[in-house]
């Protein structure tokens, strides 16, 4: 009898332990799953969400795109430009409109529109964002604003992904394009492994891991950049330590008052802004920009690539290789310049005039 009771008690004890193990495992799995899921974006105009203050268009899938107009009136403009902002920025961050001198703006009849890329500022997020969807967003913006059959495009930094996509998917709509220190995807297949690996290893170790996760395990990117055990992406954490000396000097001159709209940039959340940029920018692309054909064989337009040789964010070695593979792209390398060289005196005029007339400004 005693032995039977002991066996029964042991069996019940084992059953309880097993159930506790199952419950514990389920809790761990649920907790892990929850940690991997990014919070939903705070849609502008929704209850408790940010206010809508900018003009917006409604896109083909029901999303809204906020925009801001600059320069001469749209219906009087001789030349119309769409500007695509970089990472951790918004429609207000348009140095190409703010620093363009009246001689160029009025003399060439320049109208410019900047817009919040999906998830930024007051534009609705697009969880299905791809380079192609960005190009189609831009085309739809141009159509709804009646910019005409052709327009120019300038893409800065992470805005380069949209600009390359426009060259691929809507080349018939472009009068010309300028890629200004565009972020490069280390996994574009045309890069020789030794060149891409060398450039990749120039990054701080935390950024190497951050872009590696974005490429190979995009579902893990939110958790990777929100956990507190180790450093995530320097862009996500706004770590300015990796900037070049010239970039730091520019930021010092601008000061804290340089971006009064800072709070608006990520107001819908971090995931559909800077983290989505990483997933798209360093993910698996449907095309390789270095396989693009000449858009303007008859020289009716031009494509320009501008890069500083001291850029700590975008390796100049990769841009040089891109330029070598695309000889029809006009490559401009700025000595001693970092990622923010468009803020150099006269540089915006130079970039815009070169794009619109194929003539560089003579200082």
Automatic annotation (TrEMBL):
SUPFAM superfamilies: alpha/beta-Hydrolases. This is (rape) hypothetical protein. Keywords: Membrane, Transmembrane, Transmembrane helix. The keyword Transmembrane helix applies. The keyword Isomerase does not apply. Signal peptide: none annotated. The chain crosses the membrane at residues 16-36. Residues 81-343 form the AB hydrolase-1 domain.
